[in-house]
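User: Show me sequence and structure for the first protein, then do the same for the second.

Assistant: Starting with the first protein.
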Amino acid sequence: MKNRGFNKFISVFMIVLLVMTMTPFHGFAEDSNERPTTGFEDRNAESWTTFDEEQLFLQQVDEMSERVRITQTGTSHDGKPIHLVRVGYPEAPSDEEIADGRNMVIVGTQHGREPSGREMSLQLMRDLAFTEDEQLIDLMSKTSILFIPPANPDGRVNNTRGNAQGINMNRDHLNMKTPEVQVIAEVLNQFDPDIIVDAHERSGTNPHLEMQWPQNLNMDEELRDLSIEMIEEKVADDVEDEGYTTGPYPLGGGDERFLGNMAGLRNSLGILTEPGMGNSYADRADMQMIAANSVLDFYHENFDRIKEVRDGSKERQATAGANMSEPIYFDGSDELEPTKVEENPACGYMLHTSHAEKIQYYLDIFSIETERVGDDGVFVSMGQPMRTVIPLLLDERAGYSVAGGTPVHDCSNLEDLEVPPESDPQQYSTTFADDEAGSIPEDWSMMWKEGNWSVREQPSRLENYVDASGGRRLLSWNDVGRKYDDVEVAGLVRSNGAGSTLLQLHLHASGDTSREYALATENSYYIDLRSSGSLRINRLFDSSFSNLASASVPFDTEGGKWYQVVFQREGTALRAKVWPYGDEEPNEWQVTAEDNFLVGGHVGPGHFDAETLNEWAHIGV
């Protein structure tokens, strides 16, 4: 409970006195009993609330209402505070009381250039702090309403979609590499909310507001049905009653990295809101407010039912995992036919203790229970509520898994199970001499986009021709498979007809561009040798390019010559070097970078410049 006495009076008095001696600051009320207002409201929705105005507004509401408690719960990449707002009645509950009781969470503005969700969060928390509405007071007396007003303060200040690292946070809710998403995950894990509201915006105007429910196929069906009911039979009706049009958000899909889908995987109801940015500022914020208030109404009207469905969801997931009675989906959604389905799921996954230690953060942040087996084994049973997430984290077939656990199909006697060995260095090498000429080499697969790959003879080599359409292509080595942590890739390659890029070599590659837009992704670390004479280390994340480091090489780069190239990841270090074939290998790495964003993936050569021909005489891993 907050100390609300003399300190509160002095704090408010000093703030008001200070403001009275200087030019009025948006959001301050002359009367301490008057409700605070945002800069957005003060300027009649002509411009968004500034960062400084937001900080002052939060301070005011926190000081002026016993119902509200606000703390800094984390820090953005650039050091800005991320606040957690707790609202309850008659006073703000402690974190222990919230965790032991019921709550819902509203996350505003994951994407920095989508500010209406943050405006809604600020206004709604203020309204709840001072409301006399009997229904809202009754709801707040039974549950807590939590807000993370701007989940991405750096992006909001910079008016960018991504955070200060240039990362789309709403593609990070499984691997959780951004500090902002880690804050969200800690809140969700600690408080286990009944409902998660994820407030975004989209381009366009019509319909005015699009919405979506969690679509990942691993979530509980009854829970999804209740989320759909909340959106289609409650929120949509309330929004339309206010004169706006609504429709489903068409670009969702079942991607487990989206917060909207992670809501369902965490056994919570979920709603994604997407007003069109072609509408006025006022309308965009108004639609968010109508939708959020409608969710509160639904929560109040279905309070006991929501608990019943959520409790049942956790029980059904644990039972299905223990009985191996439900399939596991590695792609697809309730609207998109899955292509990777495990009809005979494991009852659990076995890890070596060293592997479990490396991913302990994920086990903790999802409250996944484990069991020690012998001296070196850690068993993760599927018979628990987070069955929804376990295979997405531990199965190599999952697109964004963090470890390669061994699937177990008989869990009757764990002591008899073989524990996977601690990883020893593995080596792979090919000159393509044993592969059939004129076709793709055996046990290699095209990723991202169809390419023109074939084995040639005299000398034996892998040929890659990028046709006139261009676009990123990659050939991954299935024998090597999905690799985590440290890996080194080497090759001998010649380039002809190249544009600005002579060659590309990838590691930790993942993603698929053959699916519909929302699921189309390209992720990897890769090096390229440029015709300008520079060697670069780059990162692809969600098809977004970032150059991590670049250095000039001590020789002239040109097409038609053979080059040896090495690309290595060790811990967070990325290193590369390249030299003309026949020359002595450089003793030092020519370019280095630090990054730890991509967790794992495949290795292989790639390219994207149209009408480029690459010939790989050797690849080693």
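Switching to the second protein now.
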Amino acid sequence: MNIPKYLKEPRRKWMLAGSILGALFLLFLLSQLFGDESDEDASAGLTYTASYEPFTISISESGTIESRNRVVIKSKVPGQQTIIFLKPEGAIVQPGELLVEMDSSALKDQLTGEEIKLDNAEAELIAARENLAVVKNQAEADISQAKLDFEFAKQDLAKYKEGEFTMSLKRANSKITLARAELQQSEDRLNGSKELYDKRYISETELESDQLAKQRAQMDLELALQEKELLETYTYNRQIAQLESDVEQAEFALERAERKARANIAQADARFSARQAEVQRQQVTTKDLSTRIENCRILAPNEGMVVYAPQGNRWNASTLEEGLSVRERQDLIYLPTAKEMSAQISVHESMMNKLKIGQIANITVDALPGVKFTGTVSSIAVMPEDGGWRNPDLKQYKTELIVNEESPALRSGMTCKADILVAYYEEALTVPLQSVLRVDDKPTVYTRGRHGVPEPQVIEVGLDNNRKVRVISGLEAGTEVLLNPPLAEAERGNEEFEAPTKEVTEEPQAKPGIKQADRQGS
């Protein structure tokens, strides 16, 4: 189809504009795809020349100046108490001088009530003690009587067995013997009377009288035999059973008396112990209230300057003043006892491998510009402190540094900064810490080889100062090392380089401006 000429020119312009826009869009895509690699290649080409230089390894932390031997005055009264007198802050006090007085009127009223209870408890204790003595005496008397009854019962049994029954048996046998003798005599008399009656020498009446005498003797013998049988068969067994029962009942009575005595004594003793415990409890309560009343007046234990302890927290701070309610164990006043001061700092856990007791430090105080103090690390906390709810993962160790110099200008609470000297070298070969990787568990740096290919070089390193690390061997001064080692080497299963916890070579030199004696902690 033939297109008019006046229409062909605009069409060419639009085609040219579209081609330019397409080319620009293609360039934009290429830059997005390959821009990072080009930046990485550019940064990978940066190097650092290893050289000898003065090298300082230190730990810098901010902290607070505190008195080393200050006495913390705390409230020893349980609960909430109101301050009615307070020594002005900054005042110099002597030992025994009144620092704080808290309202004790309610405690004094309570003490009066407890003293009345104590008097009543002591009176009840005396009554319980006397009652215990009476119960013990009565128990002894009851047990003694029961023992006596038991002994009498045993004696009655033995007396019947060995005495009364034997006598009764002998009496029965004797009666039988006499009855038999009388029967024999009556028979003999009757026989003689019969012969005489047959011969008509005696009358029939006399014969009948002899016959009656024989019958009487016969009956007496039978009665004597029956009595002996009753004595042996019934009377003896019944009497023995009765006496043995009396012995058993007396023994039971003795046991009951002993048990009752023990129960009465235990009950009286328990009542006495309860009254005694009540008295002791009231004594402790009374003494505790007296101690609380005494503790409402806090006296200075030593000479010093009164410094009010901070109250509340950073979001709800308050000032110690009269009328303020304070709780038990709450810090009220700091009372320094000497001129010796210390710097209290917190060291991050990553620096703990470098921190040791005895290290020296330079200490500067914000309130004293231009003045420097020296200090010595005296103590390091065993357990760390976290950063609270704002930063719970933060772990820091409280560290105390003794300030070697005395200065009246130093006061508790001043903000300070401590630079703890770990090591100092007048000349040390150093490289940036970022240039060192641990490859196959060996510290390694990369130098630019032939044709720009990075070449690994194993080195031996010392301590670092978080920016540079000291090279002990394996690298010469003037060697250029890559600031960004190849990432491929870091992906060989090795972690990023960590400097050793202590040097393996000679001792570091003292830093200029700090005496060698100070560095040793003197």
